[in-house]
Design a protein that fits this description.
439 residues, alpha+beta, Umud Fragment, subunit A, 3 domains, eight-stranded antiparallel β-sheet, six-stranded antiparallel β-sheet, 9 helices, 23 strands, elongated
Length: 439
């Protein structure tokens, strides 16, 4: 980098040492393959150049010795010297891959937030809906949004004239869900294999299918767009049925490769479209992508209040090996309790993170901590009203900042200490106001 500051003799000595490294490599790799004459010539030229360096010869003398060594290397180097550009590039990329894998395994690992369990501290995949196609960004803006925010477009195009209808099922008292047709194999960025969720909406009696990433929350998109953010209960669904806004239809479904007919409630959106028109479009915005510190975890115990990245392979309630991110709220021996909206640790309101205070006071988008009830199972979850729990030895307890929409320790219990990976360091993508040091 600063070679322009070196003298001509210093540059020549540097080049001579580089040539000696090449010659040493040829000697060690090919000495069993060379004839006695070739080996003698190679050693002679190596020795001459070493002597010139040791004697601090001038640049002209070093150049002559380098040229003599180079001629010998051409005759004895085989595949080691001169290297082809292909071999040189392969060696470079292999070395780079080893360095990257080493950094990822022991120091810093990239991580993508897939869901919104930590919202609004970290964003998972979000949606932006364009009910009127005129409101959708044009090609230039769409390209910018792809680069800046990882936004990818989905469109529901009407195959026939008719009204847009959405299959729905009641998930719990305040939510509805859209049944997936199937999980299918696809690709992310057109290259990386990924699993996708396939949904079917209807225009009249004609189905329209599209695919989204498996972690994308399409149910929330429908709830926000067509139901004002929430369903107030099954009574509201019954009222919509009486108004004729929800009708039942028998449709063919595919789940796990099995085809069957099912009678499903259909929500009539009231939007009529002609064949070929876009019924509605939406962008899938990528989740926050951040770097995770894997190094300090080997020397320092995780602190309550820190973001907490861990593996799930040994958590029976999850059932698959993935990386999760939550907030660490309990260490071995801690007693936990939720008195909505406040989380208590060892009998006092928990401290150690801004998110704790924001949730306790329900500031802005932070809705507070919710007592545990597990809507995905018949049994109730941990930390029900009036219930406490004690974190066992060699384990941690973690909760999401978005307590009302987080499958966390209340559902699947404790994180084995050995599965702790590290803490989030820096949000490097997308380029939003959250870009920067992780909270």
């Amino acid at each position: 980098m600063f070679s322009f500051l070196m003298t001509q003799a210093a540059r020549a000595r540097r080049d001579a040492k580089n040539w000696l490294e090449v010659a040493d490599k040829v000697y060690h790799y090919r000495r069993d393959l060379l004839s006695d004459a070739e080996l003698a010539e190679l050693n002679q030229r190596r020795g001459e150049l070493k002597a010139k360096i040791k004697a601090k010869a001038d640049a002209a003398q070093l150049k002559l010795a380098i040229e003599a060594l180079e001629q010998a290397l051409h005759r004895t180097g085989g595949r080691v010297y001169p290297k082809t550009s292909l071999a040189d590039n392969i060696e470079f990329f292999l070395a780079a891959a080893i360095v990257i894998l080493g950094i990822r395994a022991y120091f810093v690992q990239p991580f993508k937030i897939p869901t919104n369990s930590m919202w609004p501290t970290y964003f998972g995949m979000k949606h932006e809906v364009f009910l009127d196609p005129k409101d959708a960004p044009g090609p230039v803006a769409q390209a910018f949004r792809l680069v800046a925010f990882g936004a990818t477009r989905r469109e529901v195009v009407a195959p026939v004239d008719g009204e847009l209808m959405i299959p729905i099922v009641a998930v719990r008292e305040d939510r509805v869900g859209v049944p997936t047709v199937d999980l299918v194999n696809g690709r992310k960025w057109l290259v990386v294999p990924a699993q996708l969720k396939k949904y079917t909406l209807y225009v009249g009696d004609a189905p329209v299918t599209f695919k989204v990433p498996s972690d994308f929350d399409f149910d929330t998109l429908v709830l926000d767009t067509f139901f004002g953010g929430r369903i107030k209960g099954r009574e509201e669904i019954a009222a919509l049925q009486r108004e004729g806004r929800i009708v039942e239809k028998t449709i063919e479904m595919v789940q796990g490769g099995r085809r069957f007919n099912a009678r499903i409630p259909m929500f009539k959106t009231g939007k009529r479209v002609a064949r070929g028109e876009v019924a509605f479009a939406f962008d899938v915005l990528t989740g926050d992508q951040l770097f995770v510190d894997r190094f300090s975890n080997n020397f320092f115990r995780p602190k309550v209040g820190e973001g907490f990245v861990f593996r799930t392979g040994n958590i029976a309630g999850i059932g698959q090996d993935q990386y999760y991110i939550k907030r660490l709220v309990g260490t071995p021996g801690d007693t936990m309790e939720i008195k909505e909206p406040v989380l208590f640790r060892n009998g006092a309101p928990i401290t150690g993170a801004e998110a704790f205070e924001l949730n306790a006071n329900r500031v802005g988008l932070y809705r507070g901590y919710k007592n545990g009830d597990n809507p995905w199972e018949k049994n109730l979850g941990l930390l029900q009203a009036g219930e406490t729990l004690t974190v066992p030895a060699d384990a941690f307890f973690a909760l999401g900042d978005n307590s009302y929409n987080s499958a966390d320790g209340r559902v699947w219990g404790f994180v084995p200490a050995k599965d702790c990976i590290g803490r989030p360091l820096f949000i490097y993508y997308p380029f939003t106001k959250r870009w920067g040091p992780a909270r």
